[in-house]
Structures
1.
Amino acid sequence: MYRVQLYRSVVFLLGLAIVSGVIGATPEANAAFVMTLDDVNTSGVDVIVVDNTDGSIGTSTSAGYSNKYDLSSIDGIVRYSGSVGNFSVQITTALSKPFVGNPALARIDVTNVSVTASAAGQLAIGVTDTGFLLTGQELGSSIQLTNILGGTTDGSVNSIGYLGGNNQEFEIGSLSTGAIGSSAPGSFSGTSSKVGDSPAEAFALSEFISVTHTGAGQITTFTKRLEAAVVSVPEPSATVALSLALLGIAGYYHWDRKRS
């Protein structure tokens, strides 16, 4: 599955490089709220959890078939706690619609994440949801995508967020927040925003987090949010009217000076 390869490559490099052969492939048509957790030193994606309202064990996703149960029964909440390769993850919770967000704000969160390593390695976390459609979203409008990350780490943490106009799970869309995070131990926080063209129809949000530990016993805790909102732009008629008004003022000022 080309999307598994794409998913792991993007998480590992946070969008800075994509393995050859995946660009230009046709996306798989899946539509679910999905959380994945993966020790990149193991084969396959270790944990794939689908929101209970979208499926259960064996549900097909763009990262593979779901292999763990969602510990939450609430629509818009996906929760997992347990081992992921050499990592132990406590109460990792992903949030999406309808639990968070509103008609004017599309949002997915990763909260209450506590990661402990039994050996050096890298943990990749991905969260995706599809079917977002915002009030005021139309061709010609703009959307602002914002990535917010904060926590503490004994290693390093990086993250990136994408808006996918093709409305596909884990879609690496043209609008990206850029990578933020911490390259050294300690407390960290960061925000990154980008504005781009609004899709005419429903879109997907996907966020990727990479946690790197250099030895056993290291701990990382963090909270992450990715959100999208329509940026208000003047109506064309209002823009024209404003331009004519400014020209009129300038013309009057020029005429008045000549008369004087």
2.
Amino acid sequence: MESQTRTSSSSGSGRAAETRRATTLMRRLLVGLKGRLDDELREQNVTSAQLRFLQEVKEHPGSSGAQMARAIYITPQSAQALMARAVERGWVERGTDPDNHRLVTVRLTPEGELLLAYADGVLARLSAEVWAGVSVAALRGMNAVIERGLQNLKD
């Protein structure tokens, strides 16, 4: 009985160590990829945060600043600052919601579309570098594990 308890306990601590390691590795990968992306986009004078904002505008044109903030996990004030800079740069244009004229909405301009297309190319190249030598089967397995973790966060 004592050996079963010891085995359970040691496998539990092994699991805890591996989950910490997985979390740390995911964080390092994301931070490293974000850093490389920011380095590559610096000459375009755009940050990954601005790209997240532009991508959200593309996927949900006509969204309000508050909706954008919720979607990309930033404060409404930060969303307003990103929106102002994007308007200033000519990447988006402001409008008003047809149902509620007090709501300010944003849509991508052709210049914003071009910037996103360029950034998508950069990200595709960086992703290919990061995952070089990893099989499609291994990527599918990793994706399944990450999706399960995300589902567990929702529950």
3.
Amino acid sequence: MLDKAEKPRGWLSSTSRLRMALVALLLVILLTASVGALLGRPRLATQRSQTATMTPAAAQPTQTATALPEPTNTSTPPLTDLTVYVVSQLDDSLLALQANSGKLLWSYKIGNTLSVLPAVANGVIYATQDDGSLIALRTSDRSLLWRSMSLGSDSSLSTAADGVLYFVSPLNGSLYAVRASDGSVLWRVTGKPQISAVTVANGVVYFGAGSVYAVRASDGSALWTFQGAMEAGSPPSVVQGVVYISGGDSFSGLSGVYALRASDGGLLWDYQVAGTPACHACGGGSPMYTGPLQSVVDGVVYAGSGGGVVYALRANTGALLWNYQPGGLFVTRPRVDQGMVYIGAEDGIHALRADNGNPVWVYRSPSGTLFEADQVVFGGFQQVFALDGTTGAVFWQYGGSIMAAWLIGIDSM
């Protein structure tokens, strides 16, 4: 993500901002795959491989969404110590809502939300300004902790570990390690266009950027590279010495889930699915791609595909356990808790049984992002809502059809 020309505050009218926010959601949802979801058999690597071939998968039956009773209102969720953070792109505001009631705690003009969303972690707001500089604010009173040098106007916080913040800038192909206490840059990895979110585990930083890379967290020096995942869909998951990462090719629409040895990047298995077609008219000619978004829980890889299907795969072999297709395209990264899998799709939030993929409930409201805590599901786009994870009943709602809101996370109060 290259530096962009500075735009004066208030450069768009509220109507224009709403239109841009709605177009952003439509580009994610409506420009998804026109091809059906294709399922394939996992391929086990018999020897260390640093190059994976991408082949179409054979079609198999897919479980589809069924009509379920609409949930009704219920009691208040027991989340008194958590705050839900929401960005309203109509006026560049960051909102803090009480997790157990949806009550507005405060609103703060953050700036530059149409370019990159802010992030909240450990009681601190991190936001990239119009000039590319990075600021850190206390959530308690929004006071400035520090302002850092420009990392690029598209830089966003990916993760934090051991007092270090990791920012990615896809347009300029950079990964930054930033000291959380004062914002100083510790090291930088460059030359990685289309870099995705990162994961830190056991002193190693893993990320996808055309290929999959592992670098030392201490200084950013390279450890290994796996060529084959192309554009990564979500942060890698590192479990018991295995790196699970999803990715694909925006031009062919092929995508898959990969299992790699954390020690050397050797391919263990991969599972190919249909992704989304390229959008060559998006972003000044840059392709738009939505590959699988994976989570790994209790020996199972759950992957939501841009082709509109969620898959459950055995983590040790990649064998398909079940698959489910909601009533629409685009599936968010699955959230898994206490035997339930929660996914956001074009037609709403779906709750599935983790063991067999059977639907339990559906809430008919589209959600661009999805979070879960203590069996409470938070989601939304034009409004923010909290749902009972067991029944789908609505705890609370905030906003309306003109809010153009993005849920960015939950954090301790």
